[in-house]
């Protein structure tokens, strides 16, 4: 683990972040830690559904809790959302290094690009003509910003990120290494035995406070924009296809794929490796379990799943035969139930 | 959306692309658009299976159709394949910027590499010894072309693409950002508690008119070449393992994985997130649904699926128990049906 | 295929690698090849479970076998593990080019970084302050090594690899192009309608003899380290989330995803596209079939599977309806079997 950048007293913390302190204002905390591995120099938190015994067994110097626990003999900070409080403390103890207003001499910045004086442009960065880099933006080594693309104030792009021409990144974005925004969408017309490539004239438009994980890819729209709304959080290795729209504050876990023209609502949670097929709509507050292939629109909030249960291999062998037999029944014609599966597709 | 580079009159379009014009030759179209959002300045198309009412409700200035629709009161272009015609129009209105014969001064080009005078080599591009870059090739910022690798005429590599040594890219390739061609294949020999790495002496050989999506990876062969035939289209985030062969004009959607030594036929369509296990063969014109794990060779054309149906979570809980029970039956011994599942694996 | 760098006589091979030669010590082999495509200039191997007829039909000049086969009329080398022997021969015939102790003039090396004199630093490489690059390390074009990161002796990083600050790579690592080590982990606290980003203060710590595939991503830990033990082999396009621990000599195939805080034992084999959910534990020597979503901890060695069987699409339609019906039974309340599925989740 990295050492923290500076220490805080508990008094300073409640002055900055609120909360009700039960304990010594002068006590210093030097780093955050999980409850079970924390030492006296650490501050930890007790989740709302954790057992009180976890608190008593912890060696943490201070603990954030959601209600006072008299008699615990610890320095406690009471806050209605202990984890959120803890995350804020972690940010205070471990601030990002300050952004230096500087352009590395190796960077290739087009004379017709605008780069704010407060932006930090790393080595081997390319910025195309008409591009616009906002205040306090950090562009890591090897990033490439296409012609007429925009990166909003206070955004951070780690190394080797590629933003294609004309794409828009909002304020305070965090984009991890190797991510690609604005690549050509997939598909085209089939004609005389060959596929013709459809030129993609849409953009990717990313709202404010969006995170994009390492090596995640987001395709530009064909004839409209691909849109990520404010507060969207994308993990690593995700594919977002052309014309997709993702609602505000939706989170998508690693390795998921969202096929073309799908519309995902706000505050959705898509599990790792899940796939949403093209042209489907998911309502606000839909949760999709990891590994599920979503084959139909989901119009109501709630949790949806479709995962083959994990078994010992020899058990699976029999179970798979059983599942296949369900589809091999003789003489059943094409009845009502089969139509329902068609719809599901 | 980006503005189009230039406008065309309907007369110019039919002179260039054929088709039968019903309407004013002088009428100008400024951009392509979908039928439902098009305005008078746009040209749209009516798919073969769309309803005529969609045409009547559209505000498009001109519409491409597969048969004349008298009395529609629109400028129409009749073509047997309206979408393909539309894609060609989109290409005319939105041409790629011309390739400039130039090498950015920052590029690191080995003296023993050959770069055509008409190629455009961007900033921070590395080209190794013995490599060969064809006519009108565009290499985006940060691309790396290994020793003795070749990139065919009129190919475009976007930013941060890595082509390993000795790999061959054909004519008119389009390779999106972050793609990797020629990485070492996976696997080796297990000996005395450790894995020994097998040196990979094969190449990746890519035919003509191939598209490779953003962050897609293609491993070199172990003792033979990994081969992508002419016209293959790969979406983003795909993994193609060592020694795979993919037949002409096959398309593979995002997040799919093709395991080692698999052979995929021509004109196949592999859905997003599908997996084809190693050493399997797929016949020509096989379609695999998104999310399907192909566990056996598929010798006949047709569509194949294997997706757990998506349900509300509480319904899935019961269904998963039912599926597992199919495998937990007592006293069944190892009979005929189990052997069939074995084969399927 | 690439030509071999040099030839060896069979006598030289057994002198260097052991084994029992039956044949002419002077006979030269020029390259390795599979048994069925080998010619007289090649050396091949006969797997332990291959048929002897494969040997007799081969044109290979020499064959590595696990037991002498009198009367075969071939030059044979007998070794208890023919494939491992073959891999070692392949390494002798096809050595990596020697590492040149040199720093490309374009590289951006912080004055406060340590780079061994024997390391080869390619074009457009960035090395941050306090970073440490070991003996004979090779850094390909466009690699970025963060502040205070370390790369151990004899490691090779191909093009465009990003190592974030403070991460540690052990000895003899092989990291393929586009891989990312140390990106921020995913997730944070939800507070007042927004997600707060948790600062990640852990590192990624990679042991010795580890391979990391192209475009694979490994997140740093939140408050502890993400750990890859010695001898771990990761294929391409894999996502390893924050705080994951992977035991020694475990191999993971392409497109797999390991969710946060999962613990994978030693000598495990995880199939392509498999997903291991967060916080689960897998015992040593667990094998997970390709495409399986592991939804519960696996405490015993063995093979586990959970894949929907691949069928013709029309068969699947019926089978999927059957599976769904298993979950839609009426009037069953919440009984014992449902609880079991809950556990499985």
Describe the structure in your own words.
Three copies of one chain form a homotrimer. By secondary structure, chain A is an alpha/beta fold. The first copy, chain A, folds into two domains: 8-93, Udp-n-acetylmuramoylalanyl-d-glutamate--2,6- Diaminopimelate Ligase, Chain: A, domain 1; 102-304, Hexapeptide repeat proteins (UDP N-Acetylglucosamine Acyltransferase, domain 1). Chain A has five helices and 40 strands. In chain A, strands 8-11-14-17-20-25-28-31-34-37-39 form an eleven-stranded parallel sheet, with no helix packed on it. A ten-stranded parallel sheet of chain A has the order 9-12-15-18-21-26-29-32-35-38, with no helix packed on it. In chain A, strand 5, helix 2 (52-57) and strand 6 (62-65) form a beta-alpha-beta unit. The first copy, chain A, is flat. Chains A and B meet through strand 22, strand 23, strand 38, strand 39 and helix 4 of A and strand 4, helix 3, strand 40, helix 4 and helix 5 of B.
CATH superfamily of the largest domain in chain A: Hexapeptide repeat proteins
Return the domain count of chain A.
2
Quantity of strands of chain A, as a count: 40
Largest interface: A-B, 78 and 78 residues
- Detail the poorly predicted runs of chain A: 330-345
Shape of chain A: flat
So what's the CATH class of the largest domain in chain A?
Mainly Beta
Most strands sheet of chain A: 11 strands, parallel
Share of residues in strands of chain A: 25-35%
Helix content of chain A: 10-25%
| Oligomeric form | homotrimer
The name CATH uses for the topology of the largest domain in chain A is: UDP N-Acetylglucosamine Acyltransferase, domain 1
User: Do you know the CATH architecture of the largest domain in chain A?
Assistant: 3 Solenoid
Tally the helices of chain A: 5
Q: Mean pLDDT of chain A, as a whole number?
A: 92
End-to-end separation of chain A: 47 Å
**Rg over C-alpha atoms of chain A, rounded to the nearest angstrom:** 25 Å
The structural class of chain A is: alpha/beta
């Amino acid at each position: 683990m990295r050492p923290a950048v500076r220490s805080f007293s508990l008094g300073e913390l409640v002055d900055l972040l609120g909360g009700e302190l039960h304990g010594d204002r002068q006590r210093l905390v030097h780093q955050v830690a999980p409850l079970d591995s924390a030492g006296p120099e650490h501050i930890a938190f007790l989740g709302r559904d954790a057992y009180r015994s976890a608190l008593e067994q912890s060696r943490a110097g201070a603990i954030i809790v959601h209600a006072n626990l008299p008699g615990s003999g610890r320095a406690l900070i009471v806050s209605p959302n202990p984890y959120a409080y803890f995350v804020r403390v972690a940010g205070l103890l471990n601030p990002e290094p300050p952004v230096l207003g500087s352009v590395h001499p190796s960077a290739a910045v087009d004379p017709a690009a605008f780069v704010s004086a407060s932006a930090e442009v790393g080595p081997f960065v390319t910025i195309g003509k008409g591009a616009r880099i906002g205040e306090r933006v950090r562009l890591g080594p090897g990033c490439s910003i296409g012609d007429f693309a925009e990166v909003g104030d206070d955004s951070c792009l780690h190394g080797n990120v590629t933003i294609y021409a004309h794409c828009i990144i909002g304020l305070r974005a965090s984009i991890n290494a190797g991510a690609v925004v604005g690549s050509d969408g997939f598909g085209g017309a089939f004609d005389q035995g060959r596929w013709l490539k459809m030129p993609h004239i849409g953009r990717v438009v990313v709202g404010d406070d969006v995170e994009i994980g390492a090596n995640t890819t987001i395709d530009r729209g064909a004839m409209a924009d691909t849109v990520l709304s404010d507060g969207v959080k994308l993990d690593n290795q995700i594919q977002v296809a052309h014309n997709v729209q993702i609602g505000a504050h939706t989170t998508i876990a690693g390795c998921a794929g969202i096929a073309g023209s799908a519309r995902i609502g706000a505050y959705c949670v898509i599990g790792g490796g899940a796939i949403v097929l093209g042209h489907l709509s998911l309502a606000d507050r839909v949760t999709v379990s990891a590994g599920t292939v979503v084959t139909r629109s989901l119009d109501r909030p709630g949790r949806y799943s479709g995962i083959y249960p994990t078994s010992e291999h020899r058990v699976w062998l029999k179970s798979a035969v059983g599942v296949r037999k369900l589809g091999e029944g003789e003489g059943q014609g094409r009845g009502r139930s089969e139509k329902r599966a068609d719809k599901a597709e």
